[in-house]
Structure formats: structure tokens, C-alpha cells
């Protein structure tokens, strides 16, 4: 078992990573002394893992569950309302605990519901996708989508703990493993060159769920994210770099219709576009861009966009949370392992988008 701490003073919390954690969630949350436990999950994860978590929590406090519909298209206010209804039905109070059992969608919805129930209660993340284990369960970004864009509603609300049971990845479809690898490649590009080398070198092992390779990158990515979040919890500065590839990715997700592209797929393609942009700005070399494209492709992720509308994409990016006064700001790579945030001339952005497969 690996334990990493997200250092946030009195709100610091552990990320525990290892096999077989699900059956021990009860003993791990006991120290939080919850009055009630409400497990939030979805229709896919419930038949696989809900019973194990319920059983382990039963001796700690009365347990109930909320089972949401599955999919990015359900990451909406309606789902938050469903969780709040579940809290009412359970008689939850300010000392109750939400356990988010599932991928990033369940985690983001549950965290947001936890942040607004009685003005904020505690929640614990039990991520069951690779993407959630390496990224979404850590850092306290919570929220839902609006038709106008990704994650437009939400707040920062840190979990009390993250328990990533790596055995749950065994039931995850290959497409979802690739999606998780999208965020891992992002971390490789943001971290140091050695981490990127490791991700690149072990891509085959990662895709075939080699335990040692997975354990190493889950810990590597969590360490990187934890250190960025500890330095800049609410994205005043350096945390924005975790958005590498996301200005493009979020536009792809929205324009294709939420749920058509997986988040990690859109991020993977967004990384290639961000690399292309960085080359046009004079930072990366042609060889860097080819290398990044090859790694994204080796992860099983798309590197081009079949025909999305250019003007609608640019419009969508103007609504990104990093944009101010209509100016779109991108995370660019100065080199592999070094990122920055900057405004980009419209002409260069258009060249990159056309190269990436957007249509005028
Ligand atoms: N809060 C953050 O910091 C942050 C970071 C990255 C992504 N996100 C958000 O996370 C979401 C993407 O998360 P995701 O990739 O986990 O998608 P997801 O939550 O939709 O899960 C992917 C699919 O896998 C299924 N599933 C989950 N665990 C399973 C398991 N062990 N076995 C079999 N099936 C399983 C789910 O039911 C779903 O169908 C997006 O909404 C994205 O915006 C948030
Ligand atoms: O934790 C962060 O900060 C991130 O940006 C991580 C991203 O992978 C994640 O997709 C996040 O939800 C995007 O945040 P947003 O603020 O652009 O909605
Ligand atoms: Zn992301």
C-alpha cells in the first residue's frame, strides 16, 4: 500500500492506493465518526462494488445508497438533486459522510452535493476508474456540466480521504483504461522528463494492467497532483497547468455532445493540439510534437478530430474558465516537463485547430 498526503494544513488528507481496499473502507472511515453514511454510485458500479463497501461500513453507522444513472450526460443538477434527495431520505445531518464510489462523474457530483448539503459536509472518494484514481479523486474540484460548457458549476471542496483500490481496475473496459492514460500522459508532460519517459516506456504494460506499472504511475500521478494542489488549492496560478489539453478537450466534449467522447479521450487529443500550438509559438520542436502524438496514440487515444466546427469551437473556448475578457488563455509547453499559461494569437489557434481536424 502506498500513502500520499495532500498537504492542506488542518484539511490535509491521505490518498491510499493498493489492492483490496474496498473491504476496509469501514474501518478507515471510522475515525471520522460519521452519524450516517450515504454511498453514492451508479448503475454500472453498484452491482460490482456497492455490496462490499456497504458491508464494510455497516458497523460504523447506518448506511444507505444513491444509485445514479451512468454517463457524462448525467453530470447535471438533476443528479445533484438526486443525491440531495437521498440525503433527506437518509435523515443526514452535518456529521454525515458521503462516500463517492465510482469514476470521475460520480466523484464530481458527490463532492458538489457534499459541499452544499447543510452548507457542507465531509466526503470520501473511492475512485474505481483509472482516470479517477490518478486525477479526479484528488484536489477537491467538484461540479457538474451545463449545456453551455464543462464543469461550469461547482466549487472547491476537498475530500477527507481518497481510497483507491487498484483491484477495481480489473473490471474496467479497455476504452476507459485508455481514457485514464490521457490524464497520465498529461501528468508526464507537466512533471519532469523522467516521469514522461516512464509513462512512454511502460505504455504497453499499463494498457495490459501490469500491476507494478499501474501502481507506479497511479502513485506518480497522485504525487504530482497532490503537490500542485498543496501549492495552489483554488487555481490562482500553477494549478491551471493541470488544465493542459483541456481548453481543446472541453470544447471537443461539448461540441460532440457530452458522453460522445470520453473526457480522457478529449484530453489526449487536446494534448496533441496543445503540443502543436506550443510548436507554432516557437517552444517545442517537430520531434517533441511527434513524440507526444506517438505516446497519445500508443495510449489508444485519438489524435485528430473528425470534423468539428471551427467557429463554434473557438466560441466555446472563449467560455473556458481560464478566459478573461473574451481572451482565451492556453496551457502551453515550453518543453516536456515545463508548462506556462498564456494568451495565443487567433491566427495561430486557427492553424492548430485546422491541423487537428476542425472544419472551417
Ligand atoms: N474533479 C477533477 O479534478 C476531475 C479531474 C479529471 C476529470 N474529471 C471529470 O471526471 C469525469 C471522467 O471520469 P471517468 O473517466 O472516471 O468517467 P466515468 O465516471 O464516466 O467512468 C467511466 C465509466 O466506467 C464505469 N466504471 C467505473 N468504475 C468501473 C469499474 N471498476 N469497472 C467497470 N466499470 C466501471 C462508469 O460507470 C462509466 O461508465 C469527467 O466528468 C471529468 O470532467 C474531474
Ligand atoms: O484538478 C485540476 O485542477 C484539473 O484541472 C484536473 C483536470 O484533469 C480536470 O478535468 C478538471 O475537472 C478540469 O477542471 P476545469 O476547472 O477546467 O473544469
Ligand atoms: Zn481532466
TrEMBL record:
GO biological process: amino acid biosynthetic process; aromatic amino acid family biosynthetic process; chorismate biosynthetic process
Keywords: Amino-acid biosynthesis, Aromatic amino acid biosynthesis, Cobalt, Cytoplasm, Lyase, Metal-binding, NAD, Nucleotide-binding, Zinc
Binding site for NAD(+): 70-75, 104-108, 128-129, 141, 150, 168-171
Example GO molecular function: metal ion binding
Domain of life: Bacteria
Signal peptide: none
The protein's annotated pathway: Metabolic intermediate biosynthesis; chorismate biosynthesis; chorismate from D-erythrose 4-phosphate and phosphoenolpyruvate: step 2/7
Protein known as: 3-dehydroquinate synthase
Originating organism: Mesosutterella multiformis
Amino acid at each position: 500500500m502506498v500513502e500520499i498526503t495532500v498537504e492542506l494544513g488542518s484539511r490535509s488528507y491521505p490518498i491510499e492506493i493498493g489492492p483490496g481496499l474496498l473491504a476496509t473502507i469501514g474501518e478507515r472511515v471510522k475515525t471520522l465518526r460519521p452519524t450516517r453514511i450515504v454511498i453514492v454510485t451508479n448503475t454500472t458500479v453498484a452491482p460490482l462494488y456497492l455490496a462490499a463497501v456497504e458491508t464494510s461500513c455497516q458497523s460504523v453507522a447506518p448506511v444507505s445508497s444513491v444509485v445514479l444513472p451512468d454517463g457524462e450526460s448525467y453530470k447535471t443538477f438533476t443528479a445533484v438533486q438526486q443525491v440531495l434527495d437521498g440525503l433527506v431520505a437518509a435523515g443526514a445531518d452535518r456529521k454525515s459522510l458521503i462516500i463517492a464510489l465510482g469514476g470521475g462523474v460520480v466523484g464530481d457530483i458527490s463532492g458538489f452535493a457534499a459541499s452544499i448539503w447543510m452548507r457542507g459536509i465531509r466526503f470520501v472518494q473511492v475512485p474505481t476508474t483509472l482516470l479517477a484514481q490518478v486525477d479526479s479523486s484528488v484536489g477537491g474540484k467538484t461540479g457538474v456540466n451545463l449545456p453551455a460548457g464543462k464543469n461550469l458549476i461547482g466549487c472547491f471542496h476537498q475530500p477527507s480521504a481518497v481510497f483507491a483500490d487498484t483491484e477495481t481496475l480489473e473490471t474496467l473496459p479497455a476504452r476507459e483504461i485508455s481514457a485514464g492514460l490521457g490524464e497520465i500522459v498529461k501528468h508526464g508532460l507537466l512533471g519532469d522528463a523522467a516521469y514522461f519517459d516512464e509513462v512512454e516506456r511502460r505504455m504497453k504494460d499499463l494498457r495490459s494492467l501490469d500491476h507494478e506499472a499501474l501502481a507506479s504511475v497511479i502513485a506518480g500521478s497522485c504525487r504530482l497532483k497532490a503537490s500542485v494542489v498543496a501549492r495552489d488549492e483554488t487555481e490562482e496560478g500553477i494549478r491551471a497547468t493541470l488544465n493542459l489539453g483541456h481548453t481543446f478537450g472541453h470544447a471537443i466534449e461539448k461540441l460532440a455532445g457530452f458522453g460522445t467522447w470520453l473526457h480522457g479521450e478529449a484530453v489526449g487529443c487536446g494534448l496533441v493540439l496543445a503540443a502543436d500550438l506550443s510548436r507554432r509559438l516557437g517552444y517545442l520542436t517537430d520531434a517533441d510534437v511527434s513524440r507526444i502524438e506517438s505516446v497519445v496514440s500508443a495510449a489508444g487515444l485519438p489524435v485528430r478530430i473528425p470534423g468539428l466546427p471551427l467557429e463554434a469551437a473557438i466560441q466555446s473556448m472563449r467560455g473556458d474558465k481560464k478566459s478573461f475578457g473574451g481572451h482565451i488563455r492556453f496551457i502551453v509547453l515550453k518543453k516536456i516537463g515545463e508548462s506556462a499559461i498564456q494568451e495565443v494569437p487567433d491566427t495561430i489557434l486557427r492553424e492548430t485547430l485546422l491541423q487537428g481536424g476542425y472544419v472551417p
